[in-house]
Amino acid sequence: MPMILSTPLLSEPSFLSCSRVGIFSTQRKKNVIFCSSFSLKDNGAGVHRKENSRRRFLLFILVSSGLSPTLSSSGKTKSKNPYDEKRLLEQNKRRQKENNAPEDFPNFIREGFEVKVVTSKDYKKSDSGLIYRDYEVGKGDCPKAGQQVTFNYIGYNESGRRIDSTYIQGAPARIRMGTNAVVPGFEEGIRDMRPGGKRRIIIPPELGPPVGPSTFFSSKQFEVFDIELLGIQNCQRRTIAFYSDVVCNAIE
Q1: What angle do CA 217, 219, 220 make, to 5 degrees?
Q2: Cα 106 to Cα 93: distance, rounded to the nearest angstrom
Q3: Are the C-beta atoms of residues 218 and 211 closer than 8 Å to each other?
Q4: From start to end residue, where is composition biased (Basic and acidic residues) (predicted)?
């Protein structure tokens, strides 16, 4: 801010204006102070000329120094932590052990929505993304659309915790193929099984159940099922008066 000074060196009061320019360098910090004075008797043209000279002098200092004031960044990009795959794998193994997961259970390395499935070489992956392993192939024909299949199953989540089981319910499950009675991944896993066969399937989220507030499932996760196909039945529609149903009989 301009200040009125009275000194022996100046016969008349004068304005002394000082400007400080901060110059940032990786080697050292420089401060350039420029002061200009002019008499109260200077006319307007003289004041304007001296101010222009002061600006040119400051610009000369900045250019000749090869430096310019730096602007602070208003936002910083948060660096992402490296993907600690080993730590996440050990964490999943520990949880599966606590939940008494069965032998050769797949591991899931999850970081947010990114999931990597780790299995032994005995597992296979279909074009749809379904992962499976046959423990017993079974005998006979595979089920066809419209036929009914009877099977037992145990369902697990990624942590190896049991979420459902027909053994606990006390009776096997029955569904008709091709009627969308189960999620796509489950029906695909049964479609090429044979009676007596035992298979483990790993259903990815895109072949699993829908998620949301109106459903039982709150997040997209892989699901694991151990399935034992017990039998296949042919089905036909029966109509009696105003009543109609589907009757299924075992294949002879």
Answers
A1: 105
A2: 9
A3: yes
A4: 81-100
Question: Of the candidates 222, 57, 207, 90, which has an alpha carbon nearest to the alpha carbon of residue 156?
Answer: 222
- Residue in 134, 136, 139 with CA at minimum distance from that of residue 231: 139
- Give per-residue pLDDT as tens, 43-84: 555 545 555 665 555 454 444 444 444 444 344 444 445 458
Strand, helix or coil for residue 104: coil
Query: Using CA of residue 97, residue 101, residue 102, residue 106, what is the dihedral sign?
Result: negative
The encoded tokens of residue 178 equal: 């091709």
Q: What residue type is 178 in one-letter code?
A: G
CA–CA distance, 116 with 119 (Å, rounded to integer): 10
Q: Is the pTM of this model over 0.85?
A: no
CB 135, CB 198: distance < 8 Å:
yes
Helix (H) or strand (E) holding 175: strand 173-176
Q: Are 131 and 185 in contact (CB under 8 A)?
A: no
Tokens of 200: 């483990």
Enter the tokens of residue 42. 């200077």
92-118 pLDDT tens trace:
999 999 999 998 999 999 887 889 999
Report the distance separating Cα 175 and Cα 147, nearest Å. Answer: 8
Asked if 236 and 247 count as a contact pair (C-beta separation under 8 A), the reply is yes
Cα–Cα distance for residue pair 109/87, rounded to 1 Å: 9
Angle at 53 between CA 51 and CA 57, to 5 degrees: 120
Lowest mean pLDDT among 159-173, 208-222, 230-244: 208-222
